[in-house]
């Protein structure tokens, strides 16, 4: 709720949103926000932190004879609304029979588009019941920071189809 003061106690103040662009200049704030004449600020659609982190709303208020403008800054808070995602490099993994143990055959990157503050850091580990039962070893990339979400896929043993 916006609130302005006028020395003329009988003045009727009307608020409006001045047409302008969002912070990055490519999205009209009037598509997302509405400012009612009463000064109430209303969302036309949900906000999404991953798409737009803040908005600058130019506001006008008039008493019929005079008007003034101000700026309302809206900071979008992140919520845990994104699911973790996997990227595999290369997309198709293959290893020939006889490939030696501890041979890197690919990497998996796991990430969450949410901010680091709101569950944006993803950590993975091989389930204990799978340990030593598979031909592949899934382990954090020793060259990367743990928050990078990169994991190596290595052969656990020499590969043998039989």
Automatic annotation (TrEMBL):
Organism of this sequence:
Hymenolepis diminuta
Membrane topology value: Single-pass membrane protein
| Chief localization | membrane
Q: Which InterPro entries match?
A: Cadherin-like_dom, Cadherin-like_sf, Protocadherin/Cadherin-CA
Q: Where is the Cadherin domain?
A: 1-86
Question: Is Metal-binding tagged as a keyword?
Answer: no
What is this protein called in UniProt? Cadherin domain-containing protein
Could you tell me which SUPFAM superfamilies the record lists for this protein? Answer: Cadherin-like
| Gene Ontology CC: one annotated term | plasma membrane
Q: Name one GO biological process term.
A: homophilic cell adhesion via plasma membrane adhesion molecules
CDD domains from the UniProt entry = Cadherin_repeat
**Listed GO molecular functions?**
calcium ion binding
Where's it found, cell-wise?
Membrane
Domain of life according to the entry: Eukaryota
Tell me which Gene3D superfamilies the record gives.
Cadherins
Protein keywords: Calcium, Glycoprotein, Membrane, Transmembrane, Transmembrane helix
